[in-house]
Amino acid sequence: MEPLLIDEDQQQKTKRGWGTAAHWKIACLLTMAVLLALLLIFITLSVSGRRLCGAQKEKMDSMYKAFEALSKRLDSLDVNIGRKLDLVNVHVKNASQRTTALEMQGNQDSMFKAIEALSKRFDSLDANIERKLDLVNVNVNNMSERTTALEMKGRLAPIHKTTEAWYTSPHSFNKSVVRKLDFVIKSIEELSLQFKNTSETIKTSVMQIRKICPLLKNLKSGFSHSQKNCTGESISFRFNCGYWLNGPSERLYLVNGSWTGVQPTCEFISPNYSLLFPYKSENDYVIITHRMPSLTAVTLCMWIKTNATGNRGTLLSYAVSGEDNELLLLRPRDFVFSLRSVWSSPTNVSANDGKWHHICFAWENTAGSWKLFKDGSLGASGRGLAKGRLIRGGGHLVLGQDQDKLGGGFQEYQSFIGEMADVNIWNHVISDEEIRRMSKSCLTGTGNLFQWSDFKYHRMGSVQIVQPSCLN
Predict the structure, then answer these.
(1) Cα angle: 372, vertex 377, 378; to 5 degrees
(2) Which of 32, 170, 319, 437 is deepest in the core (most CB within 10 A)?
């Protein structure tokens, strides 16, 4: 029985040995699995780390490129603003030099306007600089915030240094701009003071000129306007009714203390004359411009002497812009006339026998009625001529020619040949009795629009003055 017990003990020991070896195998396998898992985790972390480092490197390179671009932009801004400020200084120096040539108050006023414009430009420049500096500060702050996302300590230090350098640079640049602007403002203040001194000098000079200015004599039979006796002032001259101005109508006072021109005189106009139109010509006429008012009625009277039969013989024509036949009297062999290009028929009234004749024409627009008088007697009349129309003012009045355009367009065959005297024009229809009275002798009527004395000194071409007049 004892051997059998030994074998059972050995069998139990053998079973225990086999159990212990199996456990060890399992433990080794688990250990190897854990190590393999750790290796895989390490490899994964290593690859991820490399990718993260590559991304961070790309971000850092992009950040450095952005800083380099910003540096170039700030350098360019500094250069451009420096050039503008240098140009402003040049303008200020040029303006300062120009003030030495100013001698009149008007030039000073224009210079002060230029200074105001320059000041506005400075204000605009200052505002633009402030806006650009604010933009730079915003960009720098944005870049500073971006660095908080960086986790690589080896690259953070240089980035912080670069950020601080760019953050302080705009302030130093701003101080430089302020210094330059202070210099410009100081230059403007000095220029303003120089203007003030120049103004005082000019005022003093003007006062001295006024003290030595020679007074002009008053016109006999005339009068003058606006004599102030200082540099740049002018004096104009006018004549009394019945006189004409012989000489310049205006004189100017010069810096050297003298007046331009010579002193005019007023000469008496004798109405005892006639005008001779010697032959056919488009160059002989009398013209008065821009004195005629608008009319609803008119009377014109004159003395004429002609023996011409073949010519058209225009006595008087009045034209306005756009209408050359506003008022027309012509053809002494059988007088015809026109108002606003409305023509009358031939009147069969003639005055071309080589003797003096008194001719009057009257018209009013209410009924369009008209009358033609010869030597105080009614020769022809009618109604409905240019009824309701107006003779327009501001045109040209011509004796001796027919205007085919305003103030011109004369033709030889339409010219008047003979003598003409005592031409007068009224702005109303005068009475038949007054017309008869005037026909008894010349120089007895005076128009309220134009008088015979008005025409003597408006002659053109070969028109001659003949004295004595019509009845001699």
Answers:
(1) 40
(2) 319
